[in-house]
Amino acid sequence: MILKTRPHLTQNEPLLFESSSPGKKGYQLPPLDVPAVDPKTVLGAEHVRDEIEGFPEVSEVETIRHFTRLSTWNYAIDLGLYPLGSCTMKYNPRVNELVARTEALAWAHPYQPESLSQGAMEIMAELERCLAEITGMDAVTLQPAAGAHGEMTGIMLIRSLLEKRGDARKKILIPDSAHGTNPATAHMCGYAVQNIPSNARGLVDVELLEKAMDETVAGLMITNPNTLGVFEENIVEITKIVHAKGGLVYMDGANMNALVGIARPGDFGVDVMHLNLHKTFSTPHGGGGPGSGAVAVKKHLEPFLPYPRMKREGDQWAFNYDLPESIGKVRAFYGNFGVLVRALAYIMAHGGDGLRRATMDAVLNANYIRKMLEPYYDLPYKAPSMHECVFSDDRQAKKGVRTGDIAKRLIDYGFHPYTVSFPLIVHGALMIEPTETEGKREIDLFVEALISIAEEVDEDPQLVLGAPYLTRTSRVDEVTAARKPIVRWRPQAAVGKAAD
Amino acid sequence: MRYLPKSESERREMLEVCGAGSLEDLFSHLPADTKLNRALDIPNGKSEYEIVDYFREQADRNATGYPSFLGAGVYYHYRPVLVDTVVSRGEFLTSYTPYQAEIAQGTLTTIFEFQTMVCQLTGMEVANASMYDGSSAVPEAAMMAVRITGRDRILTSRTVHPEYREVLRTYAQHQGMPITEFGYDSESGALDLADLEAKLSGTLHNKVAAVIVQSPNFFGIVEDIKAAAALAHKHGALLVMVFTEAVSLGLLEPPRDADIVAGELQSFAITPSYGGPFAGIIATKEKFIRQIPGRLVGETKDSRGNRAFCLTLSTREQHIRREKATSNICTNQALIALMATVFMSVYGKEGLRELAEQNLAKAHYLADGIEKRFAGPFFNEFVVKCNGTGPDVVNEKLLAKKIIGGLPLGKFYPELKDCMLLCATEMNKRRHMDEVKSAF
Amino acid sequence: MYPENFRYTKEHEWVSVEGGVGTIGITHHAQGELGDIVYVDLPRAGTVVAQGKTLGSVESVKAVSDVYSPVSGEILEVNELLTNSPEKLNEDPHGAAWLVKLHLSAPDELLHLLSSADYQIYVGEKA
């Protein structure tokens, strides 16, 4: 039975271009306090454009209604559990939004004098300190804009150190359970990728790793806990194997929400890692971004970090660009500062003890869900779960229902689906990460929904295959979208012409 | 802890289900040598009030209320109130990448509108859902050109934002994508087309995948994109046009002759925020759609026949193609792109033009009477000579009046160590501009 | 379902030869595993390919599958039909939706490919 939702009306809304009408305005500029200039005279007629064809012409009222109506077509954390495995969709505290908009922070120009930027620099320094403490590493760069960007930074750091030692080496080892960004990153940094198969328990196969690890291997990219939500119990041995052959260990910190305050990568042999501030440290995902992919390193990699680095000069912060071994800049300026402010606000709200409590609650929620659903769904790997648990659709597939179908049916029950079909080592994966910011009531509703769907699969698989029914948009035809891509709006007349 | 919505009795109940005696038991399987056996050295949790107070205190140590004439890739423009109203809605703020199209039509529709508006502005045929920022969009565009042309050299103008070029160098260093720079004309401050032609036909003959230029360039000068494109195309290279000041597109001829446009939309209602988060874009011709990095939203129908949108052509991306992907990008800047979308909706066709014209007028008023270094046509930035005194002295004079002056150029261009880059937008008042003029 | 005169690979390609020219495609089984095919990426005519090396790729909405050449040779012709109608690969994989025609450079390679019967046993469609 569907307990969490009941349908209500949603408003239809055309695209902005379709509600435009010539001359309609939603803005007013102040009068110019200087003489106007003729663009064609000062720029040259050839540099001045005609009007922007098709650009919106709408009023303020229409604009606010447009976006408000569209917003109601979205699911969001603010509406409920968002159990996307690997994505750590936790509550986004609103005070973080407020402080990020503090005028002198939000309107700080990256090139304003350092003497007038001390507050912003202090915030970055304090965040670096906290992240180093949380990870057990020695230095942190806040420059990377997202997780994959942090991965790229980290692998470049490894490459620079190895080059300095005389040989950049050829390849990176990556477990087959890794996120797709890992191999894509290694490739961008000029390395070949060698996959390391997981063992029967879903962990890195230490023997295979030992065999694969030689002097041509630059390093290992490992996710811990891995994408099954399982802690790599041999991690100390793994890092020793890699180090013994002169390689370095990169840790994908996507799953750091399972470790904060409990275990530190720096203590178990990791040389470099990234953190997703938009996952572990609660900054909003905003429909796909922005994020921040801070990178933490051990002492031996510090000289290669992107420039500039902050240093103390008397009682002032200053930027140091004189870093001859640095890999260079990975983006302009200093990073996604606005995201950094939010992450620090989150850390301050919890404090050291609170962060640990949050980790424990996240792991409790995942284990509770696992226990409650085990009788109904196949659990292919039985090792203890940390912050997420991964089922397979093995039982339901026998009735012709796959993980993607169960996900769509879950939408009717009022929940965002889990991560579908990942990690790839589980056939038909249901990857569930509840995070710590869900209470027992919401989790019980979710568990009941998945149990109810399992029963539906037994009794009436067709019902599940046709879901969702209660959304304003029913199952979307992704095949047509991919076969004949339409990625921008065009006026009807133009569309007709193209079709002729 | 106020973000943890459980009572102690609920915790106990859940622990019982898990067969655990305590929360610590859930971690008992972790080897002892991996565990932290002390508390984190981070002060105890703070109240909302204390947090607000801390950031206010830090903000007070930053510049507040200074009129500023800095541009150089980050611009001060007015942010319509609607922008924050829209992006503060939890449905946009706290949702994830729209993989489940049925419950993400809000985000998908706004991205489709964003892609469309970026195309309209740039004269391109397709645009992606956003990149991290303008600087990282440049190497992504270069990598795209390498895939398309099968060549590996990149030729970039020295008038592309210096930090963008630094980022390009970082990305390129391990990809076998050597970068060569070509110069600017020391009179006009615009591209040195003769140097470009010489480099294209010299040792790099038939090797260049992309020629990268910026307009308005780092000096604020409007470039002749048509001529640059013609030269690039003559030698079988693609032309990548970069922009940092999106407002200029309200007035300037769009770069229709370019093959790829890589730009930064910070000017569209995105606060300077000490350098980020911003929103980069990549736009290109339809025929290159399969080489574009990042997410794309496409139009389709749902099973009832209603218009619907979904992420499309995902096989280009890392989660499917892994090491063969067009890029490793995953997270982008969706919420920031939404700010730009709302901005473009509010200003619209006439507003963006009027805004651009105001910027043009303000900058030309500011420039009038100061000795400009370059003669080329400029939009809202220009390089000035600080004869005798040097830029630092001028800036100090202005700071004494609580005005932040321009960017000294010596750090990026040693030959321009006596010059600074000044910017004026619709936010700069005439009386402050008069103060700046009198400082020279 | 699987023509007797075709030869098959364990990677699910087929080849049929007539007068030194091989026609290459993917099998009915392969299209079924991929689901709705949305894009086919093929080499240009004139390209020389080696047996077992990547010939191109076939994409569904959420998967990419490389196509390996069952035989070595020079590509003579690419099936233009698939550019605009990739769905034909789901409808008629052994007929109208062939991928490329090539000039066989080592016809002996055919001897190492699977017969129709063996392929069907391999994919478990026949005991």
SSE blueprint and pairings:
The complex is a heterotrimer of chains A (500), B (440) and C (127).
Chain A (H helix, E strand, L loop, with lengths): L38 H5 L16 H12 L22 H7 L2 H4 L11 H18 L3 E3 L5 H19 L5 E5 L5 H8 L3 E5 L9 H7 L4 E7 L11 H10 L3 E5 L19 E3 L20 E3 L11 E5 L2 E5 L16 H37 L15 E4 L1 H4 L5 H10 L6 E2 L8 E4 L7 H20 L1 H5 L12 H6 L8 H8 L1
Parallel strand pairs in A: 2-3, 2-4, 4-5, 5-6
Antiparallel strand pairs in A: 1-7, 6-7, 8-9, 10-12, 11-12
Helix pairs in contact in A: 3-10, 5-10, 6-7, 10-13
Chain B lengths: L7 H11 L29 H13 L20 H7 L2 H4 L11 H18 L3 E2 L6 H16 L3 E5 L4 H11 L6 E4 L10 H9 L6 E7 L10 H10 L3 E6 L16 E5 L15 E5 L12 E5 L5 E5 L6 H4 L12 H34 L13 E5 L5 H10 L6 E2 L10 E5 L6 H9 L2
Parallel strand pairs in B: 2-3, 2-4, 4-5, 5-6
Antiparallel strand pairs in B: 1-7, 6-7, 8-9, 10-12, 11-12
Chain C lengths: L6 E2 L4 E6 L2 E6 L1 H7 L2 E5 L6 E2 L4 E7 L3 E5 L4 E6 L2 H4 L3 H4 L8 E5 L11 H7 L5
Antiparallel strand pairs in C: 1-2, 2-3, 3-9, 4-6, 5-8, 6-7, 8-9
Main sheet overview of chain C: 6 strands, antiparallel
Strand order of the largest sheet of chain B: 1-7-6-5-4-2-3
- Biggest interface and which pair forms it? A-B, 198 and 198 residues
Task: Count the beta strands of chain C.
Answer: 9
Summarize the structure.
The complex is a heterotrimer of chains A (500), B (440) and C (127). Chain B is 35% helix and 13% strand.
Give an overview in words.
With 500 residues, chain A is of the alpha/beta class. Chain A is 36% helix and 10% strand. Chain A has 16 helices and 12 strands. The longest helix of chain A has 37 residues. The C terminus of chain A is likely disordered. Chain B has 440 residues and is α/β, with parallel strands linked by helices. Chain B folds into 2 domains: 260 residues, Type I PLP-dependent aspartate aminotransferase-like (Major domain) (Aspartate Aminotransferase, domain 2); 91 residues, Aspartate Aminotransferase, domain 1, CATH 3.90.1150.10. A 7-stranded mixed beta sheet of chain B has the order 1-7-6-5-4-2-3, sandwiched between helices. In chain B, strand 2, helix 7 and strand 3 form a beta-alpha-beta unit. In chain B, helix 3 packs antiparallel against helix 11. The longest helix of chain B has 34 residues. The radius of gyration of chain B is 25 Å and the shape is globular. The mean pLDDT of chain B is 96. Chain C has 127 residues and is an alpha+beta fold. Chain C has a single domain, classed as Beta Barrel (OB fold (Dihydrolipoamide Acetyltransferase, E2P)). In chain C, the strands form 2 sheets. In chain C, strands 1-2-3-9-8-5 form a 6-stranded antiparallel beta sheet. In chain C, a hairpin with a 3-residue loop joins strand 6 and strand 7. Chain C is globular and about 35 Å long. At the B-C interface, loops of B face loops of C.
